[in-house]
Amino acid sequence: MTVTAPAASPAPASADGSPTAEALTPTVREQLRRRRPWIVIGIVLVVGALVLLVVQGGVRAPGPLLGPANAAPAGSKALVEVLRQQGVEVTEASSLDAAVDLAHGGATVLLSDELGILDADGLGELAAASDRLVVVEPGFAALRTLAPGVRLGGVASGALDDVACDVRPAQRAGELSDGQRLVTVDDEAAAEGWQGCFRDGEAFAVAAGPGPSGAEVTIVAATTVFENEHVDEAGNAALAIGLLGASAELAWYLPGPADADAGSAPTIAELTPGWVSPVLVLVIVVTVVAGIWRGRRFGPLVVERLPVQVPAGETSEGRARLYARGCARGHALDQLRIGAVGRIASVLKLPRSAPAHAVAEAAAVATGRDAASVARLLIGTEPAGDRELVDLAVELDRLEHEVADSVRPASAGPAGSDSDSDDRPHPTGRRP
Question: Residue 417: which residues within 8 A CB-CB, separation 6 or more?
């Protein structure tokens, strides 16, 4: 029986006539071709992430709205620097307690609660501690607590130049740019001393009056007056500097998540509408009923014999492909050696339990080869590449042929040889 190296196609012959074989180790190009779908998916994910980062970077402001150190269009760094040049000490309050402490020290407090974090108690505490409080773009809760009777009134139709109040910063400003929000002042608030500035119909861009604790509270309905992008338009800067520079110290307070009262936050059950739970129960019941109604009914188990036949050649080729794909040359050579040792032992009438080195010694004696070289061929040498693996496979095949020829009767001659034996008389008296 002939041992051949696991190859996908017949081995071509080289220029000198020695057999060669095509290398089965996957090349870099083949590996890239096999992994092309995953590479494409990875590239798409990376490009998508980069596009998302670029879009978010272009849409989102690089800092907090009205941040005192934010130089972006929506920040207020320009206004803060101007105030500091005029001798106003601007301090960023990182918490409600810090803002209250600064207010007790006589500082003007700027409050911009963009997310509506402060509750009524926090707003009341800050207003009670402040002498001058400037509230920028307040929400419903802030207006209800700090300025009862002052309500949101929409958006201005354009630039505003009707001051309509005797507030000195507003009179010095004289005009506000486009993009202002508005508030309304009802009769009860007007009777308590509230007045609106920069009229637009029945609404105003600024409202000023006494707070619940007697503090001087100014409501600025929009952040436009304080933003870097618009502070230099019309009289925005004059109004902002006049309101925030009234004292030698300014507390710049932007409430954060740490100022939220976790105990007063609504639970998921409180935020969930009442119809959600019955609908969920109904969906679960309908799903179970539909599963029982349309589910597949399995009958009793049936034992059936299925013809299964796996050709030996297919198994060998499949294992060879796995070895080639994993570059497992050592495993492939081990399989060839195991087969060769078994066949040589069978030809030399050695027992199946004969160790490999004993088979190698017997093969060396039978063929006349050097025992060490035969042992290296059957046991010791490890292939360093595909070419060396093929050479070892060819040597194993040649060794098997030599062992088979050594035990064949001399009169028979080598298999396939041309001799004069055809002319000798046949033992039975017949000519072949």
Answer: none
